[in-house]
């Protein structure tokens, strides 16, 4: 049942926003949280039965500090009950899926199944994105969102998928013959949806899996071909972007010129102050950039204590009903609270909360580094996740990961899985055995680049820790 619930949660999380945008009842967007509620019950029952959870003390300290911070923000700001409820729903919706791998053993076959399923979801974005491009009411790439709600979210998801594929290629668990066409196919939506963030994340997707390989010999052997391949792909992406959206940056403009001349930075940071307002007919982003939105809480709110503790969860975010909105909802909307995750956290849990969020990314990255040294399947997954985590941390200043449930559920699940693997290795917990296959009848030999030669003798996966 747990396996089925995870598949259902991933599937619904990736399509719920899209289905709601098509006019389906609002309950569709709440479906992931309904499944997460079922997982909460499972986690509670597992904890009650086994009284064991595979989590390092540093995370207990981190989350404990975050809880105290949230409580202090609610009390010091006298946040209304409805806003508190909405805030708790926003900030704790991912807790069940994060805790699940910490109390339940997932086999290699199960994790491999989830990754294949997510890859299928990624591939399905391509024809839908092309259709959205053809039927878009105007040339803007903002309409090309796949099933993920925004063009930026779609690009981040697909580039992260490329990073995971690259990690499996580096670990010799994926064939080069399959890798190249898949990468080219997955890059179609980012090339047509006008998201500049792809130009920043794509080099990381190719470079980080190679740079994070634990042995210097493997790193040097892979670096040059990956740099060449990545440079070609980035060049093709740049040409495709300039052919469609180059004139956005002025006459003779291009993606390269835009970055070199600092126009991208001007777009992200406009130096907005408390009097910044968009002209009639324009959106908030015309007056407030993404980086402006991060520092606006420091300019709007005068109290230094609230700069550090925030204004209380739910006290600044928008909601579908005014009963669940806080005192600062309208004011925060004027200054782009929903532009990025960093801006939302700055408004509601302050500088300390934002710092703790990045500390979480650092902890997960360090644990991934410990697991990726292994040569087994979990090592390949950890290499991919160690490459993706820095990209997700960077996008905290580009989009709101807190609200993007399509990315959020899978991100927290994979983080929990890597943390559990780190604890298992550290405590000597028995791992699934792997043996090499016999040479393939097609002439392949073990050790040839791009070909996986390991199979798994599966043990019972539903055992307790």
Give an overview of the whole structure.
A two-stranded antiparallel ribbon has the order 1-2. The chain is an all-alpha fold and 465 residues long. The protein has one domain (2-261, 351-427). It has 20 helices and 2 strands. Residues 436-465 have low confidence and may be disordered. It is globular, with a radius of gyration of 23 Å.
Strand order of the main beta sheet, please? 1-2
Mean pLDDT: 85
Number of separate strands: 2
Largest sheet: 2 strands, antiparallel
3D shape = globular
H/E series, N to C?
HHHHHHHHHHHHHHHHHHHHEE
Query: Any low-confidence stretches, pLDDT <50, length ≥5?
Result: 436-465
Number of helices: 20
What structural category do the secondary elements indicate? mainly alpha
Structure at a glance:
65% of the residues lie in helices and 2% in strands.
Name a few traits of the molecule.
single chain; 465 residues; mainly alpha; two-stranded antiparallel ribbon; 2 strands; 65% helix; globular; disordered C terminus
Write the layout of secondary structure elements.
Blueprint: H1 2-21, H2 27-50, H3 57-77, H4 81-92, H5 95-103, H6 108-135, H7 151-170, H8 176-186, H9 188-192, H10 197-211, H11 216-245, H12 255-260, H13 263-268, H14 290-300, H15 304-309, H16 329-334, H17 341-348, H18 350-372, H19 377-394, H20 405-427, E1 433-436, E2 454-457
Antiparallel strand pairs: 1-2
Helix pairs in contact: 1-2, 1-6, 1-20, 2-5, 3-18, 5-20, 7-8, 7-10, 7-19, 10-11, 10-19, 14-17, 17-18, 18-19, 18-20, 19-20
